[in-house]
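Hello,

Our lab assistant flagged a job as stuck in the queue for most of the afternoon. It eventually completed. Since we weren't sure the result was trustworthy after the delay, we are filing this so someone can double-check. Below is the sequence as submitted and the structure that was eventually returned. Let us know if re-running is recommended.
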Amino acid sequence: GVPLWSLEIALAVRGLGQSVKIGVVVPCDLQDEGWTEDWRDRYYKVIEKADSAPALPLEYTDLCETDEDLYDAADRYMVDNCDIVIAVTAGDAMPDAVGYAHNKNRPIIYIDSDTLEVTQ
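-- returned structure --
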């Protein structure tokens, strides 16, 4: 959903001549299992055009043996390696990654998916 759309928008902005660095973190090899062919094709097109698309680094691989969600680990990795976070939220619901970004003192831009209101 939103992550893929955001990446596609970033690619379109870069296509207009803007300098945009695009990174995708692959949380696990089988994350696209169960996706429709259209979504899978769109995902791999974005990865091909991204500046970087690493799988989770080795220090995160021990998560495979725990109950921790690999997607949460990927979110934390992205927050650890970014300058600003853009969070698309629904009303008062805040994803765990937003709390993590707040604790890391990252600037956060919020977009409410219901109202499209943008706040910092």
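-- support follow-up --
The delay was a queue issue, not a problem with the job. The result is valid. The chain has a mean pLDDT of 80. The helical segments are 2-15, 37-49, 70-80, 96-103.
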